[in-house]
Amino acid sequence: MTVTVDQAAFRGALSRFASGVTVVTTVLDGVDHAMTASAFTAVSLDPPLVLVCSHKVNRFHDAVLESGIWGVSILAEEGLSASAWFAHRGRPLETQFDDHPHRRGESGVVLLDSSLAWLECTTETVVDGGDHTILIGSVVGAGVRDDLDDPLLYYRSHYGTIVRRSETEETVYEGEQA
């Protein structure tokens, strides 16, 4: 059975899901590759697995498939310019990190300093996802910054950050039980 979905409605529905913003990196033959991704999520705590989706037409796509290693920089609000830059197609590979402070993880991948947290992964599973490839990665390294706590968010093609409320999952649940 073939189902036809209105593409504008589909894109509109997806844009109403607020997400964090990441920059995913890999290195192949000494050349760094990067892309901005909001299609990122945890898969499993035990074993530690995450996934990211890569558009098949991006040059990052073939590089990460061949290298089998990748880093995820979970951006803080201060990473807004990095997010926009690494979403830009056709930027020069040789100088793409020049204006974005970074370091190399133990695996050799670039990790951005404007991150709340970072992960280093090896590709565990590759799944076809239409015009994207779904990469499931085994997390081999992780770290967090305790001096930052303002995540960069993306919603309806706009950047934002969170407004903190006093309620937590526990306090809301306890309130409903009373």
Would you identify the regions where 5 or more consecutive residues have pLDDT less than 50? none
**Given the C-alpha coordinates, what overall shape results?**
globular
Mean pLDDT: 94
Structural class: alpha+beta
Secondary structure tally, helices: 4
Strands, total number:
12
From the N-terminal CA to the C-terminal CA, the straight-line distance is 48 Å
Q: Which strand order spans the largest sheet, edge to edge or round the barrel?
A: 3-2-6-9-10-5-4
Q: Helix amount, in percent?
A: 10-25%
CA radius of gyration:
17 Å
Order of helices and strands: HEEEEEHEHEEEEEEH
Explain what you see.
It is a single chain. The protein contains four helices and twelve strands. It is an alpha+beta fold and 178 residues long. Strand 11 (153-155) and strand 12 (158-160) form a beta hairpin. The radius of gyration is 17 Å and the shape is globular.
Summarize the structure.
The protein has 178 residues and is an alpha+beta fold.
Question: What would the keywords be for this entry?
Answer:
178 residues, alpha+beta, seven-stranded antiparallel β-sheet, three-stranded antiparallel β-sheet, 4 helices, 12 strands, globular
